[in-house]
């Protein structure tokens, strides 16, 4: 999922799809690349489970898959809690006067 979102174009596609479903043509319109290139980016997002699409007639419509984004958000939330805890401990350590940290033998 994060590899798929690591690309600026794919992030732009996701940002657009968060506002609602769109056809591949609509998604490609503001981009400076071929329709085939946009389709490749969408396939990466679909493989990652972030986007799903359906074809009706000649129009392929894409939608965001909220569950996949929620899973990523939850993972990031857990990581943030861990990082904040470690940074808090580092801040406490750095705030101690020299020679007063645990394990000091003076």
UniProtKB/TrEMBL annotation:
Transmembrane segments: none annotated. Pfam families: HTH_20 (PF12840). SMART domains: HTH_ARSR. CDD domains: HTH_ARSR (cd00090). InterPro entries: ArsR-like_HTH, HTH_ArsR_DNA-bd_dom, WH-like_DNA-bd_sf, WH_DNA-bd_sf. It comes from the Bacteria. One of its GO terms (molecular function) is DNA-binding transcription factor activity. Residues 1-84 form the HTH arsR-type domain. NCBIfam families: HTH_metalloreg. This is ArsR family transcriptional regulator.
């Amino acid at each position: 999922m994060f590899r798929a979102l690591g690309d600026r174009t794919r992030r732009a596609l996701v940002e657009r799809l968060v506002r609602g479903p769109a056809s591949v043509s609509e998604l490609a319109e503001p981009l400076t690349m071929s329709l085939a290139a946009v389709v490749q980016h969408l396939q990466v997002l679909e493989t990652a489970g972030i986007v799903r699409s359906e074809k009706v007639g000649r129009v392929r419509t894409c939608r965001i898959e909220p569950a996949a984004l929620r899973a990523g958000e939850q993972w990031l939330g857990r990581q943030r809690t861990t990082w904040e805890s470690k940074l808090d401990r580092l801040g406490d350590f750095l705030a101690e006067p020299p020679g007063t940290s645990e394990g000091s033998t003076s």
